[in-house]
Amino acid sequence: MSDLLNEVLGANRKYAESFDKADLPMPPGRQFAILTCMDARLDPAKYAGLAEGDAHVIRNAGGRASDDAIRSLVISYKLLGTREWFVIHHTDCGMETFSDEIMRDLLGSSLKTSSVDENGWHDCCEGNGSAEAKYIDWLTIKDQAQSVTEDVIRIKTHPLVPGDIPVYGYIYDVKSGQLVEVSEATEAGKC
Ligand SMILES: [Zn+2]
After folding, report:
1. How far away, in angstroms, is 93 Cα from ligand 1 center?
2. Residue 126: which pLDDT band, with cuts at 50, 70 and 90?
């Protein structure tokens, strides 16, 4: 068994020993949802003060309002009763470091993990790439405030999203732990 697998299963055994959340209802108790980035430095439970059962947290690369993120948000309100949503991107996001073209070239030449330096992303070795990357919109980010605003607008104007759900737009600062409002996004997300 890998060291990592052992660590994770060990941590879970400890967690389960004192587990006291068996009676939580399925719908989030505080009736809200957060869409945010998968970045390992972000812990939404900590930065937004969540306990088990409080809120839905939907995560993907960039915290983008992809079709699948919207699928989750629609389930979140329609079946599980959330009434307010946050879109939270962050400073120093990996999604700012590449473009569709770069990702398509990298994956086209190799599936091995790429490296990055001051000249950009590089593959270590050629071969065994795939052209499939051309068919994916990687939803990269050029400007965080702009991406938050775009995503709030996409969610807010989606035909399956009712008008009475406010959507708030924020950027999490990885250097301070603070949430900084993107006022243009919050404005666009008003009811
Ligand atoms: Zn990120």
Report:
1. 4
2. confident
- pLDDT given for residue 28 in this prediction: 98
Q: Cα(155) to centroid of ligand 1, in Å? A: 19
Per-residue DSSP letters for 101-145? Answer: HHHHHHHHHBSSPPEEETTEEE-S--BS--GGGGG------S-HH
Separation of CA 42 and ligand 1 centre (Å): 9
Question: By C-alpha distance, which of 36, 151, 28 is closest to 82?
Answer: 28
Interval 70-121: pLDDT, tens:
999 999 999 999 999 999 999 999 999 999 999 999 999 999 999 999 999 9
Looking at residue 96, the DSSP 8-state letter turns out to be: G
Give 40 Cα–ligand 1 centroid separation in angstroms. 8
State pTM to two decimals. 0.96
Q: How far is the CA of 73 from the centre of ligand 1 (A)?
A: 19
